[in-house]
Amino acid sequence: MNQIAFLLVPGVHLLDLAGPAQVFSTAGDFGHPYTLSYVAERTEVPSAQGLPLTARSQWPELGPEDLIVVPGWRVHPRVAAPVIGEGVLQALRDHHARGGTVASICAGAEALGRAGLLDGRRCTTHHDVQDELARHHPGAVVVRDVLFTVDDRVVTSAGIASGIDLALHLVATRHGPAVAAQVARDMVVYARRNGGEPQASAMLRHRSHLDDTVHRAQDIIDTRFAEPLPLPALASAVGVSDRTLTRLFSRATGGLTPLRYQQTLRLERAEHLIGHGATVDSAARSVGFEDARMLRRLRARAG
Questions:
Q1: Cα separation, 156 vs 250, whole angstroms
Q2: pTM of structure
Q3: Is 187 buried (19+), middle (13-18) or exposed (0-12) by CB count in 10 A?
Q4: What pLDDT digit, counting tens, does each position of 46-93 carry?
Q5: Maximal C-alpha separation, the chain
Q6: Which domains does the chain have, with CATH numbers?
Q7: What are residue 157's DSSP bridge partners?
Q8: Is 109 helix (H, G, I), strand (E, B) or coil?
Q9: Taking the CB of residue 205, how many other CB atoms lie within 10 A of it?
Q10: Quick one: what percent of the chain has pLDDT higher than 70?
Q11: Which of 48, 80, 158, 294 is deepest in the core (most CB within 10 A)?
Q12: Pairing between β-strand 67-70 and β-strand 101-105 as defined by DSSP bridges
């Protein structure tokens, strides 16, 4: 995902657009730059909140590594859904056929459905229009009560603020959860919600606090969790005593010590490796355990 192209439809919700755009823009501030572009059938696009937007009418050149995002629009029973031209729908189909990823926020899933990209795939949308999406596109597998789904490079989210969760997930997938945690923290979105899937990262689950000392300690652990991190060295790095760091850490994370937090990250990464074919022994070594016995104990405890 070097380029992110946002397809703007009349009545677009500003937060559907701005939330993911801010995630990718902030990732660029931390050394992972993206080129953001905004495309529409007409260069002037009215938003649902009344702010007029300006877009380009020509698509940028997109490769398989790039992403198209369709933000949602205002849905009202007395207002017809926006017309989306066949040329735009073909652009969505072509990008996916070339190996690219397409994503939708909220009612934007309707555009993916009209392009035929939801047939046989898991998807979701805002709870107000889930029934409508299922009725319009009977070949789609509409999943309810989740924040986002990912199926064969088709990514859909429930709507509004969940677009931020979706974008953070994409950043975590490409750059690792530590980068996503860094972006979330900078956006003051410490508690990234999971998508109803097991990909939720402990790095983000335990960021729902405002203790800067603990965040700095977590920054170190996040990037070096496979290394030995003695408590005295960690405490010294953030400028407090061992006892103070342990007390602050436990209070901020709901009872975790720095060591237990590190073990949680190691276990999560090991489970990911095992799920992708690694042996328990090799996974244990990859995440910093000298042998597999500790990993087996942690897996048994978690199970």
A1: 35
A2: 0.69
A3: middle
A4: 999 999 999 999 999 999 999 999 999 987 765 667 889 999 999 999
A5: 64
A6: 3-175 (3.40.50.880), 209-302 (1.10.10.60)
A7: 105, 148
A8: helix
A9: 18
A10: 92
A11: 158
A12: parallel
